[in-house]
Design brief:
Largest sheet: 7 strands, mixed
Low-confidence stretches: 1-10, 12-25
Structural class: alpha+beta
Distance between the termini: 20 Å
Mean pLDDT: 90
Strand content: 25-35%
Radius of gyration: 19 Å
CATH architecture of the largest domain: 2-Layer Sandwich
Shape: globular
Length: about 325
């Protein structure tokens, strides 16, 4: 199979008019924000603008946050955000607020809104929770105010807010996997992932993405050309082969700072995982299992061993 990168503006025509599948009820809309994992992540080069070109295969999973966005008749501020996480910023530092402000300004929306964000995706774990919440906000406002913004346009807007936001917009709409290039904004949708059970292990470590990128060493860690082996495995739709070819350039860097990550990967492998790898720049680790029973047994054993680590059993969002 041949894979070529493409800009979000050149997505298939059937995606151009894709809207959030949840319909508004009265003056509010509820939207889901799905987590993502990086099945493959390779850093190719550092660009002249300071960013890095990468090659990644990203997959949405069913672990999700949820947002309820409601129109208000009047309010002291145009955007009110409440969340179940006490230390999560609810001001402009939050991508949800940034996304809402940008879209409301762009489309001259003056009616105030209230957003209730229920977080389940761990923060600072490489699972894309913030980017996915941002994407869900764009989807929700598009639906709530009947803006009729096509998906490719939303993805262009999302790219200005964060490199993972375009993928999360795609994933929150239809699920699935995508091949990402550039800084992550050039997406090629991939065939549906085969079903399996996925364990997410999230140690109590908040990893700074900037710090990890700054530790990249050009000679040792900039690579290119390993994607073909992974894509050949993906084409087989064989879970064991896919898991065998997981790769993440950042695993050795992040686990060098936080040895618990390498220990978690080894622990999952010892419990029968088909393959285990870190996602993003960390700290979350994911592992594939043939079935849910095996996945839950592994979680029960490891939960007692790794105190403070959160374990989730989920599945690909197909």
């Amino acid at each position: 199979m041949r894979h070529s990168s493409q800009n979000v503006s050149s997505l298939p025509k059937e995606l151009h008019s894709l809207q959030n599948p949840r319909l508004p009820a009265g003056g509010f809309v509820e939207v889901d924000a799905f987590a993502k994992i990086n099945l493959f992540l390779e850093i190719v080069r550092k660009r002249s603008d300071g960013y890095h070109d990468l090659v990644s295969v990203m997959q949405a999973v069913n672990l999700r946050d949820s947002l309820v966005i409601q129109k208000l008749d009047s309010a002291a501020s145009p955007i009110q955000l409440n969340t179940n996480i006490s230390n999560l910023p609810t001001c402009d530092k939050n991508l949800v607020v940034k996304a809402a402000k940008l879209l409301m300004r762009e489309y001259n929306i003056t009616q105030p809104i209230h957003i209730k964000l229920t977080k389940r995706i761990p923060i600072g774990a490489g699972l894309g929770g913030g980017s996915s919440d941002c994407a869900a906000t764009l989807h929700g406002l598009n639906q709530l105010f009947d803006l009729k913004i096509p998906l490719d346009k939303l993805m262009d807007i999302g790219a200005t807010l964060g490199a993972d936001v375009p993928f999360c917009l795609l994933a929150n709409s239809q699920g699935g996997a995508a091949l990402a290039r550039g800084i992550g904004e050039k997406l090629t949708p991939l065939p549906a992932h085969p079903d399996c059970s996925i364990v997410l292990a999230c140690p109590p470590i908040h990893v700074s993405t900037k710090k990890i990128f700054n530790r990249l060493k050009r000679d040792a860690q900039y690579t290119n050309g390993k994607l073909d082996k992974f894509m050949s495995a993906y084409e087989t739709q064989d879970i064991a082969q896919i898991a065998k070819h997981f790769q993440n350039t950042f695993t050795s860097i992040t686990s060098g700072l936080y040895p618990q990550i390498a220990t978690l990967i080894t622990g999952l492998q010892k419990q029968g995982a088909l393959g285990a790898e870190m996602t993003g720049t960390g700290s979350a680790v994911f592992a594939y299992f043939h079935n849910e029973n095996n996945a839950r047994k592994a979680c029960d054993i490891l939960r007692a061993k790794y105190i403070g680590t959160k374990f989730f059993v989920t599945a690909p969002r197909i």
